[in-house]
Write a structure and sequence with these properties.
584 residues, alpha/beta, ABC transporter transmembrane region fold, elongated, four-stranded antiparallel β-sheet, six-stranded mixed β-sheet
Amino acid sequence: MKTHTKLALKIYWQHAKRYRLLLFIVFFSAVGAALTGVVIPLYLKKFVDILASPGADASSRITSILTLFAVWLVAQWALWRINTFSFAYWQTKIVSDLFNTCYQYLHRHSYSFFNNTFVGSLVKKVQWFSRGFENISATIVWNFLHMAVQLVFIVAVLFGVNTVLGLGMIVWLIVFLVVAWIFSLYKLKFDIKRSESQTAVSRHLADTITNHNTVRLFGGFGKEKRRFWQLTQEYSKRNIFSWNLNNYFEMAQGVLVVLLEFGSLFMAAYLWKRGQFTVGDFVLLQTFVWTIFDRTWEFGRNVRHFYQDLADAEEMSQIFDTPHDIQDKPGAKDLKAREGKIEFADVTFNYHETRKVLDKFNLVINSRERVGLVGQSGAGKTTIVGLLLRLFDVGSGKILIDGQNIADVTQESLRRATSMVPQDPILFHRTLMENIRYGRADASDAEVMKAAKLAHCHEFISDLPDKYDTYVGERGVKLSGGERQRVAIARAILRDAPILVLDEATSSLDSESEKLIQEAMLNLMKDKTVIIIAHRLSTLARLDRIVVIEEGGIIEEGSHESLLKNQQGIYNKLWNLQAGGFIV
C-alpha cells in the first residue's frame, strides 16, 4: 500500500524552516538541556567517592562540587525555560501556517473534487494534519533529540570507565532501538487503517446530520443506526488491535530492560571485585542505566506515536499529492472584460471520459446581449455555464471572452468578471449584511441595503429582530428558499460584474415574489451580458435571444416571439405546456 509519510514530513519541514532563528534556539536549548541532565550525575559520582573515601581536603572538595552541582542545575533550568517558551511560539506559528496551507490547497481544488468528498472528512483531515505536526515536533525535540544527545554522552562516559561496559551498552541500545523501529514500521499500516475507519465514522456522522430530515421523513433511522454501529465496531476492532500490538511490544521491551539491569549489576560487581569500580562509579552506572531505561522505554512508545501521527496525517497528505484539476497556466494574465462578448468555439466536453455532454459546441453571445438557455434536464445547460466559469476545463475547443481564451487568464480575474445566482444558493453562517457584502467586500452598509432593496429582500430583513445583523444559520437554513434566493440576487446586484449568469434564479420564488423581482432583475441586467438558465419560460420572454439545447447541441434559437411561431418547435411545445400557470 502506497503511503504519503515522506510527503507529510517534507511539508512539515518546509514550514518549520521558515522560522530559522526560532528553530536554532529550540534545537540548541534542547541539546544543552539534555547535556546538563547527564553531566550532573558526574558530580554526584565524585561527591559519593569523597564520602566513601574522605581525605584531608574533603570539606573543600565537597563545597566545590556542590557549587558546580548548583550551577549546572540552574543552567539546566534556564535552558529548559528557553526551550519551552521558544518551542511554544515556534510550534504555534507553524500550526497556524499549516492550517492556512491546507485551507488554500483545498479551496483550489475543482468543483468535481468537492462533489466527490464529504465536508466532514475534509475538516477532520485538516485538523489531524496540523495536530500531527504538533505531536511530531514535540516528539522529535523533547524525546528523540533529547534521547540521542544523552545516549551518545552516556556511552562515551561508560567507555571511559570500562571498554566492555561501553561495548555492552552499545549492543543493547542497537538491538533495542532497531527492534522498536522495525516494529513501528510494521504497525504503521494498521494505524493507517485505524485512521481510515475513524474517517468513515466521521463521514457517516456528517452525512446523516446534514440529511437528518431525510432520515426522519423516510424512516431511515434504524438503517442508519445499524450502519453507524457497524462502522464504529470496525473502528473499535482496529483500535483494539493497534493497542494490543503496543502491549505485545512493551512485553518484549520489559524483557530487554530486565536483561540490561541484570547485566549492568553483574558487570559492576565483577569490576568492583577486581578493584576497577568505585562506589561512585556504581552510583553513576545506576543513574545512567535508569536514564537509559527512561529514554529507551519512551523511545519505543514515542516512535510508535510518531508513526501514528504520520498515519493521521496520511489522508491530508493524499490530498496534497492530488494535483488541482483546474490550474492557471504559467504566466497567466488577468482577464480584461470590457464588453463581455462570449464565444464558445468547437467546445467538446465529457464527464468521466465516457459521457459526452458537448460535441463541437458553438455559440456566440454578443456584448450586453441577454440570452436564455432552455432544454430538458441533462441537455447540457449547466455544463455550458460551468465551463464558462471554469468549474471544469474543456476537452477541446476554446471559450473566449472579449477575444481572450479563458484558459489563458487567471481564474481569479475570470470570477471577478462574472456574477452568478445559482439555483439553490447556499449562504454562510454569518449575518445578512456579511452574506450580501460577499458580492463586493468594500461595499458600504448603504450600498448593501440598496442592493437588498433592489432584490426585494430588504422587506423581510426589516421584519427580523436583528435586521441586517441576523445570522442565517448553517447554509442559510433559517431563511426560506425564496429568501435565500433574493439574498443571492442582492449579492449579485452588489457585485455588478459585466457578465451575469442566472441559473434558475427565480425557481424558489412564489408568483407574488417573482412579480416583485422581475423589475429588479431587469435593472440588474442593464449594460451586462446575461445568460439565464430557466425551466420556467416566463422568465425568458423578454430576453434578446433564447437558445434551445438538446443533447449538448443547439436545435433552436431566436427571440421568444419567433420561436413561438414555429409550431413544431421544442420551445413552442414547452411554452404551451407551461404558459397557463406563468406570469407573462
